[in-house]
């Protein structure tokens, strides 16, 4: 079966990911859980190993060789992230533990400092819990009001309803770029432009976007952009908060400790400049270096070819699953990332996940941290196959065969 599109050779790409060479239940691993976390190429593993085996040191202020090496690579990764999302300055890149912490930091810093009673925050019905709960907590603390953009049964936000929610009270719109449970790619530029007309800021959750399409934060003109390294073929425990410099400059730090200070006395502390005022304590140095290596890796790929190949996989998978009787696809938006959420009326998703695992197939089952999405469709959970650059049509065929076997068992 053909697995090459333009300059995109999947056979070669698969050689870069050692996890793909293991066996599960005596069968080759078929990894279709990329929305939970992506596999890591050997170059990322090597970069982390090199840090721990040859360059272990803390960053900043050290004048010895190891510290200078670690600091140089750490800050080089910041520059790589800046270029990757086309930020205007590396000081706009804050390293965090992941998307969840990045969103919480905006809520705790910007929200506490600048949002007041009856100010309104808008999110959408398809948000991950990480983009719901921090805002609920802020609303409880500050007396703000949380508004929700509804979606239709295809999994698209209803844009007209969003526009109705916008008003002079709207201070922040925090919305997912790409839904983790539906695959919907939201019209974020249109959302940003509409929000800005009402002088509202916009935070984009880009966790499920950065491995599938090129991001340009200046072209989008978003105010904040957040993502996690482990969704981008990088390590866990590292993420990014991008913010426009003029916003970050006026936002107070939320963590106190080393590296985020300029001077400390018992009477008063002054804070470091960007980005360090938001990076208290010893950071995840190896994780940041690994993220830099992951960006180096994805930069070797052709984004247009990558997009075409993943669209081809999504279309193929959609048709294959549609051919399975009784199977219901959840999330059929026109603009989608390669995510296939589905359920069988007579097979609980957890049972299905267990059975396909017997064939070496890894999928995710559950509510995917999007319980409001499940409530919208009146279901408790789905099975989710999420595809990436190293997946193939043959793997989708094996998934379908495995689903059919599960159906037979539950007849």
TrEMBL record:
<keyword id="KW-0663">Pyridoxal phosphate</keyword>
<dbReference type="GO" id="GO:0006534">
    <property type="term" value="P:cysteine metabolic process"/>
</dbReference>
<keyword id="KW-0808">Transferase</keyword>
<protein>
    <recommendedName>
        <fullName>cysteine desulfurase</fullName>
        <ecNumber>2.8.1.7</ecNumber>
    </recommendedName>
</protein>
<comment type="similarity">
    <text>Belongs to the class-V pyridoxal-phosphate-dependent aminotransferase family. Csd subfamily.</text>
</comment>
<dbReference type="InterPro" id="IPR020578">
    <property type="entry name" value="Aminotrans_V_PyrdxlP_BS"/>
</dbReference>
<dbReference type="InterPro" id="IPR015422">
    <property type="entry name" value="PyrdxlP-dep_Trfase_small"/>
</dbReference>
<dbReference type="InterPro" id="IPR000192">
    <property type="entry name" value="Aminotrans_V_dom"/>
</dbReference>
<feature type="domain" description="Aminotransferase class V">
    <location>
        <begin position="30"/>
        <end position="399"/>
    </location>
</feature>
<dbReference type="InterPro" id="IPR015424">
    <property type="entry name" value="PyrdxlP-dep_Trfase"/>
</dbReference>
<dbReference type="GO" id="GO:0030170">
    <property type="term" value="F:pyridoxal phosphate binding"/>
</dbReference>
<dbReference type="GO" id="GO:0031071">
    <property type="term" value="F:cysteine desulfurase activity"/>
</dbReference>
<dbReference type="InterPro" id="IPR015421">
    <property type="entry name" value="PyrdxlP-dep_Trfase_major"/>
</dbReference>
<dbReference type="InterPro" id="IPR010970">
    <property type="entry name" value="Cys_dSase_SufS"/>
</dbReference>
<dbReference type="InterPro" id="IPR016454">
    <property type="entry name" value="Cysteine_dSase"/>
</dbReference>
<dbReference type="Pfam" id="PF00266">
    <property type="entry name" value="Aminotran_5"/>
</dbReference>
């Amino acid at each position: 079966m053909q697995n090459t599109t333009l300059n995109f050779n999947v056979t070669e790409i698969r050689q870069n990911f050692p996890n793909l060479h293991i066996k599960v239940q005596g069968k080759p691993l078929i990894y279709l859980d990329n929305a939970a976390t992506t596999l890591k190429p050997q170059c990322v593993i090597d970069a982390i190993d090199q840090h721990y085996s040859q360059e272990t040191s803390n960053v900043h202020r050290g004048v010895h060789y190891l510290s200078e090496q670690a600091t140089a690579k750490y800050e080089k990764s910041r520059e790589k992230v800046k270029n990757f999302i086309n930020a205007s300055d590396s000081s706009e890149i804050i390293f965090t533990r992941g998307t969840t912490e990045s969103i919480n930091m905006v809520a705790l810093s910007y929200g506490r400092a600048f949002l007041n009673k009856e100010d309104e925050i808008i999110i959408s019905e398809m948000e991950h819990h990480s983009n719901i709960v921090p805002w609920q907590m802020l609303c409880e603390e500050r007396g703000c009001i949380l508004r929700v953009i509804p979606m239709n049964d295809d999994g698209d936000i209803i844009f007209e309803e969003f526009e109705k929610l916008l008003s002079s009270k709207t201070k922040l719109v925090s919305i997912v770029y790409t839904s983790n449970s539906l695959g919907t790619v939201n019209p974020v530029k249109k959302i940003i432009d509409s929000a800005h007309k009402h002088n509202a800021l916009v935070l984009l959750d880009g966790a499920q976007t950065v491995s599938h399409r090129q991001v340009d934060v200046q072209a989008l003109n978003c105010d904040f952009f957040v993502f996690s390294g482990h969704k981008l073929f990088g390590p866990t425990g590292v993420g990014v908060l991008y913010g426009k410099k003029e916003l970050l400059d006026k936002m107070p730090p939320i963590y106190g400790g080393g590296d985020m200070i300029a001077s400390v006395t018992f009477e008063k502390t002054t804070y470091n400049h960007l980005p360090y005022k938001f990076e208290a304590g010893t950071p995840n140095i190896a994780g940041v270096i690994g993220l830099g290596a992951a960006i180096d890796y994805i930069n070797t790929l052709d984004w247009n070819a990558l997009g075409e190949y993943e669209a081809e996989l999504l279309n193929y998978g959609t048709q294959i699953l549609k051919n399975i009787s009784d199977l219901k696809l959840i999330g059929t938006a026109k603009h989608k990332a390669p995510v296939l959420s589905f359920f069988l009326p007579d097979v609980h998703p957890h049972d299905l996940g267990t059975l396909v695992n017997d064939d070496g197939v890894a999928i995710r089952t559950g509510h995917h941290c999007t319980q409001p999405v499940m409530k919208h469709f009146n279901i408790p959970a789905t099975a989710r196959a999420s595809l990436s650059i190293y997946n193939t049509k043959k793997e989708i065929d094996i998934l379908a065969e495995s689903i059919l076997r599960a159906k037979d068992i539950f007849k």
